[in-house]
Amino acid sequence: MSRIYSQAYLTAQASSAPDAIAHAGQLGYNFVGLRLLPNAPGGPHQRLLGDKALLRECQARLADSGVGVFDLEIIRIGVGFDPNHYLPLLEAGAALQARAVLVAGDDPDLNRLSDQYAQLCALMQPYGMTADLEFMPWTAVRNAQDALQVVNTAGRPSNAGILVDALHVARSQTSLSDIAALPRELLHYAQICDAPTTNAQGSTDLSVDDMIHTARCERLLPAEGAIDLRGLFQALPPELPISVEVPHHVRAQAVGDLAWSAQALAASRALLDL
């Protein structure tokens, strides 16, 4: 079965937004993901917000390449969250016809986080994008059960979503049964990569620093690591779009974004297009 694939920001993170779009089209991806806001103060991202000329260039590249924008990054919900701060991101997403925005949960009070998430979903409604909450074991939303609790407590808005990342499934208290039990209407896409399931010393007790380093800098191509990717994607809907998110700073820099993204897509297809 042939799936729909999107080139995630982290797979081609050295590329500008227009170049990432062009590369995705050249390689045969259906969609591209863009990070227009940093994941932390001073963090890397693609310049676009507030630049009308660059926005027009991205729109032209989308038209020329035939790809679409799937997801935008990133909205983090922490203490004192104000959803209106993210209006420029939502306006850009609407102009690019993006489908989803990746959301991270940092507020340790899950009831308050749920209220803030509901406010965000309400604000996003007119922009036509889903708010896909990604669980990560070092955040307040640690696993799939936490993500489902937040979404349910928020009243399960019509544009709510839960983002399943293979790396975080493998490194959190999340079982394949937890994944299979997620309501279909909350699943809009999933992220694929591979990684070891132990650290350099052979321990499965990974530190937060270990997990963050792998997530941002050193993931492996599908089938190179020890994550049960076949089991995971059998637990997910077979038609679910796949975001290929395989950052590896050393290997990507050695061959360039275009070649690395091509390798990531080929490895994903070899595993999933059965």
Structure, explained:
- Helix content is 41%, strand content 15%.
- The protein is an alpha/beta fold.
- The chain contains 11 helices and 8 strands.
- The longest helix has 16 residues, at 257-272.
- The chain is globular.
- The relative contact order is 0.16.
- Strands 1-2-3-4-5-6-7-8 form an 8-stranded parallel β-barrel, surrounded by 5 helices.
- The chain has one domain: TIM Barrel (Alpha-Beta Barrel).
- The mean pLDDT is 95.
Itemize the secondary structure elements and their pairings.
Blueprint: E1 5-7, H1 17-27, E2 31-35, H2 52-65, E3 68-77, H3 87-96, E4 100-105, H4 110-124, E5 130-134, H5 144-153, E6 160-165, H6 166-171, H7 176-180, E7 190-192, H8 208-217, H9 229-235, E8 242-244, H10 249-255, H11 257-272
Parallel strand pairs: 1-2, 1-8, 2-3, 3-4, 4-5, 5-6, 6-7, 7-8
